[in-house]
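Bumping my old thread because nobody answered last time. Still need a sequence for this structure:
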């Protein structure tokens, strides 16, 4: 059984997510994914690359069903990777805490 470390509740809901960051050498990257859960303090998502704890991210969250073309609110966030789990096929599950939030 895992010990719950979160201080705030999370919504278990898949939400479209755009992620931007830069590798240790400075090379930037971008990818689209879905957050597996999200809360006031952070989110959990799958990345197509390995993430590093402490890595700073720019996140854009669209509050709509994945694949939906309907108008939906978007929020731009700054985050920091606080946990990583290696997954099969070169994927990485990561948790990020929010540093700065603004409605777009």
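Sorry it took so long. Here it is:
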């Amino acid at each position: 059984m895992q010990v719950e470390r979160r201080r705030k509740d999370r919504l278990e809901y898949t939400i479209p997510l755009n992620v931007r960051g830069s590798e240790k050498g400075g090379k930037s990257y971008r990818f689209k994914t879905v957050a597996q859960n999200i809360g006031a303090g952070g989110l959990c998502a799958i990345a197509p690359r390995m993430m590093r704890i402490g890595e700073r991210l720019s996140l854009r969250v669209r509050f709509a069903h994945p694949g939906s073309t309907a108008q939906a609110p978007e929020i731009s966030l700054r985050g920091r990777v606080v946990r990583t789990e290696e997954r099969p096929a070169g994927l990485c599950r990561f948790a990020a805490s929010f540093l700065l939030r603004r409605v777009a």
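The chain has a mean pLDDT of 85. Let me know if any region looks off to you.
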